[in-house]
Amino acid sequence: MSGRPVALGALCAALALCGCVQRQLPHHMTDISGLVAPLQFHMTDQDGRPVSAADYRGDVVMLYFGYTHCMDACPTTLATLADAIAHLGAEAGRVRVLFVTVDPRRDTEPVLKRYVNDFGPQFVGLRGTHAQLTRMIKRYRVSYHYEKPDASGAYEVDHSSAVFIFGRRGRARLLAQTGAPASVLTADLRRLLGRPG
Amino acid sequence: MRYLFYLLPWQFSPTACAVFTLTLVIYVRGLLVLRREAVRVRLWRPLVFFFGLALNYAVLQTYFDFLAQHMFWIHRLQHLILHHIGPVLLVLSAPVPVLRAGIPAAAWRVLRKRGVSGPIGRLWRALQHPLIAPVLFVGLIYFWLIPSVHFTAMLDQRRYLLMNWSMLIDGILFWWLMLAPREAQGACAVRYGMRFIILTAVALPQIALGAYIALTTHPLYSIYAVCGRAWAISPMLDQQLGGLLTWIPGAMMSAVGGIVVLHHALAEERRALARAAPPQRDGSAGAPA
Questions:
Q1: Under 8 Å CB-to-CB from A174, ≥6 apart: which residues?
Q2: Domain count of chain B?
Q3: Which ranges constitute the DSSP H helices of chain B?
Q4: Do A162 and B139 count as a contact with CB atoms less than 8 A apart?
Q5: Which end of chain B is more exposed for a tag (fewer CB within 10 A), N or C?
Q6: CB contact under 8 A, B155 and A35
Q7: What pLDDT tens digit does each residue of chain B (289 aa) get?
Q8: Residue B132's closest chain A neighbor by CA?
Q9: Of A35, A160, A177, which has the smallest distance from its Cβ to B228's Cβ?
Q10: From A18, which residue of chain B is nearest by alpha-carbon distance?
């Protein structure tokens, strides 16, 4: 039957597909090399300057989506990142944290500036127009959603918890999930700093 | 304007645009050609075909796709449509004569030479083997729901597209094999009795997997927490709904399929009887359904 070799080929293809099974690194870290798009965006930083990914080439970049009124996830995550950077010592200056606000209405430049400065000089607050933010949301396949405002008009925003880590040439390398300890992050950052990509 | 946003693609796919447009153009052309040749196509067939096509398009190329990327149960609904409901509708509309009439003669000659008797034809016949087709059908559902595979499929745009297209293509292949009348299937025809066995055989693992997902008490798919859900819903409720959608409607489609197969089997029997002893009262008994 002429279908026999083709059937075998199909089986091989199925087995090859199983190669897609991603190896899971320990401690809430996932290797995302080749899975997530390289760093690319156009936004405005906390000083009102238009910035793009090219401005951060040469640095290891950690990308996180959040908002300054966030009560738990954002401050905890950013504090962990600050802790991880502090343990890098002399190399700390070669790491950047890009904090993209998903609540640009309340997170104006002065609000954003005050917020990111609290975490350290490596922290950059990024704010975009609706179109710029949407492009980024689509590119990194993340989402955010505004909750109903309370009586005083305050509202919460549901958002992604991922920290995307990019190598010095802007290629996606690692994804840190909530709960990744600072020590693990420090080791990974040091490894990425030692690599050209 | 607001509604237009929900109807437009979340992430535009040139492939999807080309495939759906081409299918629609060929089908409509086929309808016109058949009409010119005075071949009657019953009205419900194009209606079911357009509905099936529109359903598949909607879950791939509207705001629904955003929801499917960020909510597990909507992702399961998307696959229920791509792998079950959409293909079932397309196959039930018996579109082949219309599509065949819609393909220009010159293009059909090339297709026949390259496709039907070439490597694509051989691959088609291999995938339509009564043992391989159900394994592939269930295997794809299981494969894309392995938690680590699911994680990267949701993270990587290319794998996400591969996942959705593999579901749609396999859905059409499988339900064509199950639901098309034997005389339309040519070399890959499967006996109706065998189809009942296959339909039952694919229902059971879907029930098992759906129940496992729905009844597991810890989150299996962390990607939705990592990349954010479409709206606030408890991760466990999301998982339970997704599990139920895999468990009940997925398996129910086998029952629906069984009814269609029974219908074909009875029609075949009626025709055989009509041939053996010509009908005495009216001549319509042998008309194919």
A1: A25, A29, A30, A31, A32, A164, A165, A188, A192
A2: 1
A3: 2-7, 14-36, 44-60, 64-70, 72-80, 86-92, 96-102, 105-111, 119-127, 132-144, 147-155, 157-179, 192-215, 223-227, 235-276
A4: no
A5: N
A6: yes
A7: 678 889 999 999 999 999 999 999 999 999 999 999 999 999 999 999 999 999 999 999 999 999 999 999 999 999 999 999 999 999 999 999 999 999 999 888 888 877 777 788 888 888 999 999 999 999 999 999 999 999 999 999 999 999 999 999 999 999 999 999 998 888 778 999 999 999 999 999 999 999 999 999 999 999 999 999 999 899 999 999 999 999 999 989 999 999 999 999 999 999 999 988 765 655 554 444 4
A8: A7
A9: A160
A10: B143
Third-level CATH fold of A27-193? Glutaredoxin (3.40.30)
Mutate to test the interface with B, among A6, A32, A159 (most CBs of B within 10 A): A6
**Residue with tokens 């693990």, as numbered in its chain:** A184
| ipTM for the predicted complex | 0.85
What residues make up the domain containing B137? 2-275
How far A57 CA sits from the closest chain B CA (Å)? 23
Which is nearest to A178 in space by CA: B69, B227, B145, B156? Answer: B227
Q: Which of A3, A145, A162 sits opposite B227 (nearest CB)?
A: A162
* Among candidates B126, B149, B225 on the partner chain, residue whose Cβ is nearest the Cβ of A10: B126
Among B67, B124, B149, B155, pick the best mutation site for testing chain A contact (most A Cβ within 10 A). B155
Residue B285 in any domain: the answer is: no
